């Protein structure tokens, strides 16, 4: 399980030191907080990607219209 979690989190860009802390944590509150922080970063990344797609769409529409 830990190997799969490490692989997934690494693929999502979670910092290695946070992955190590998460997998070594005995306290469920620490685990929850680290995952909440990671989820927040993923949400921010997704929002930024959406803004970039909207920008591309506007640029293409301006070029063609």
Report what the structure shows.
This protein has 65 residues and is mainly alpha-helical. The protein is 86% helix and 0% strand. It has 3 helices and no strands. It has helices at residues 2-11, 16-24, 28-64. α1 packs antiparallel against α2 and α2 packs antiparallel against α3.
List the topology elements.
Blueprint: H1 2-11, H2 16-24, H3 28-64
List how many beta strands DSSP finds: 0
Portion of residues in beta strands equals under 5%
What is the gyration radius calculated from CA atoms?
17 Å
Spatial separation of the terminal alpha carbons = 52 Å
Overall mean pLDDT stands at: 97
Low-confidence stretches: none
Order of helices and strands: HHH
- In DSSP terms, counting alpha (H) and pi (I) runs of 4 or more, how many helices? 3
What is the global morphology? elongated
Q: Characterize the largest beta sheet: strand count, sense, and whether it forms a barrel.
A: none
The secondary structure category is mainly alpha
Fraction of residues in helix: over 70%
